[in-house]
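Appendix B, record 7
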Amino acid sequence: MRTIASLCGGEILLEAEGAIGRLTLARPALRNALADRHWAALGEALAACEREGLRALILRGEGGAFSAGADLAELASLGQRPGAPEAAARRIQEVERRFAEAPLPTLAAIDGPCLGGGLGLALCCDARIATAESRFGLAPARLGLRYSPQDCARLVAAVGLNGARRLLLGEPIDAAEAQRIGLVDELVPPEGLERRARELAGHWLKLAPEAVAGIRRSLAALVESLARAAEPLWGEFYGAFRSEEFQEGVRAFLGKRPPRWSG
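Structure tokens (predicted):
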């Protein structure tokens, strides 16, 4: 395994063995929570994959977690600077779009929490495999936020409208339920996660690369067409970062107390 890039002080690590890349979220003390700098680094890592001619990419998390989602301490600090949360959200949307449209197929190898923005990243992948210890959830409304039209479209494409509604408005679900609703393709033992991920990535190496790239673009375009139906709601999505509900949601989370909604 050779190292291609070590970004954010090693918190985003891109390695490769042959034509298969392995992109690791390596911030285990915070369950691989993703700050704004990590999203920028993910975009850099994806560009490096394409420069290196890699033909498959495995996303994984270190330390028994895929990703707990956004770094809420940073999100709270961004909220003190006008326009900063919206700019960070736009960066996430752009990086997710690049992952969904990249020419090389991607696989999320999930162990432990896969929540919020971490699940959003996993939904950009062509396949998701997980251990039985994994759990999945989205909770934008707990923070007073909306879910972007783009992310809603990917979620509905994966699990249907009822599954999307359940994840966005309900409690986190376990790995067995995630597989039942189509969020996860396959469950594997923890000790077999890396091996199975490499087997699936190896299958992609047998396929014609330009055909694979074209298929991914076609599928991404279909999801984008679904997102365009909700284009008028982008303003609400970005506007929520300026709302009192968002400020209260972050204060409550950081203070480890129930939020006090005024509505």
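Remarks on this record: The first strand starts at residue 2 and ends at 7. The first helix runs from residue 36 to 52.
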